[in-house]
Amino acid sequence: MRFQDKVVIITGGASGIGLATAKRLASEGARIVLADINQDNLDQAVPEVQQAGAPDVLPSMCNVAKEDEVMATVKATLDKFGRLDAVINNAGLMQFKALEELSGDDWLRVLSVDLLGAFYFTKQAFLHMKPGGAVVNVSSIHAVATEALVAPYAAAKAAVLSLTRSSAIEGAPKGLRINSVLPGAIDTPMLWNNPNVKSGVEKINPSDVGKPENVAAAIAFLASDDAEFVQGSELLVDGGRLDHL
Ligand SMILES: NC(=O)c1ccc[n+]([C@@H]2O[C@H](COP(=O)([O-])OP(=O)(O)OC[C@H]3O[C@@H](n4cnc5c(N)ncnc54)[C@H](O)[C@@H]3O)[C@@H](O)[C@H]2O)c1
To answer: Can you tell me whether residue 87 is helix, strand or coil?
Structure first.
């Protein structure tokens, strides 16, 4: 029970990788805060996370792109539980447009969720976490190899790796660890709603598709004390997809 008595915020925790992570950490004793923008999914997720073993679950409607909403979620967490041990920056969105069709607002919409959301929660973690705390950022293989039509997403996910590095440098003296995972193709709504996947522009070999639980296991390791000497790392969880010629 690596997370006994610990309190973990998971952004985008009401679906896919975030929900699988919530259940995994719950099964290891964590009290879970699900921070998500989708109320219906939150309502469905709470009993699932309870069933997985969470001693307590706090659902928190939160748009991670808004710093005041992030602050409100962290305050609600501290008011209810009195501590914060880990943050999983998992909320994310993609947008599909050719470069010449993208506006500055399109870029800002993606960057504000995928990058600034992670920054706002990391800032709160630095302000409120005690030594031993951990942040895990969910990047993507798009940070290192990408395709057409997703420039803002690829840039945001690459910047998340840079944020991880900067956070690790500044977090280490505070006793905080910050690491990232780079999932490949994972069986979640985000993968199958991807127009590039639907149209066949992005070809996915079925053997390259992982389960949300595969990523959750990696996140749980990085968030746990088992990873006490792992700092600023980038863990690929892609079943070897990036290695193919
Ligand atoms: N599924 C994949 O193949 C894959 C691959 C690489 C990386 N990722 C990354 O994994 C993370 C989770 O994706 P997923 O596949 O589980 O997707 P998903 O669509 O199943 O879940 C994403 C969750 O994030 C929430 N969310 C979106 N915008 C938000 C916001 N502004 N504030 C708060 N919550 C918000 C959604 O409501 C949803 O619950 C994302 O960061 C994604 O980029 C996914």
So the answer is: strand
Nearest Cα to Cα of residue 184 among 119, 138, 230: 138
Report the SS3 class of residue 143: helix
Q: Over 80: is that where the pLDDT of 153 sits?
A: yes
For 199, left (φ over 0), alpha (ψ -120 to 50), or beta? alpha
pTM of the model: 0.98
Q: Is any ligand 1 atom within 6 A of the Cβ of residue 239? A: no
pLDDT (tens digit per residue) in 23-68 = 999 999 999 999 999 999 999 999 999 999 999 999 999 999 999 9
pLDDT at residue 119, as a whole number: 99
Task: For residue 3, report the phi and psi dihedrals to the nearest 5 degrees.
Answer: -115, 20
CA distances to 145, 181, 197, 206, 238 from 243, rounded to whole Å, are 11, 16, 20, 16, 9
Domains for the chain: give ranges and CATH numbers. Answer: 7-237 (3.40.50.720)
Looking at ligand 1, which residue's alpha carbon is closest to its atom 14? Answer: 16
Instruction: Determine the average pLDDT of the residues in 186-212.
Output: 90
Q: How does strand 7-11 pair with strand 209-210? A: unpaired
Q: Is 153 a catalytic residue?
A: yes
Is the pLDDT at 118 greater than 80, yes or no?
yes
Q: Probe ligand 1: pick from 94, 188, 236, max atoms within 8 Å of CB?
A: 188
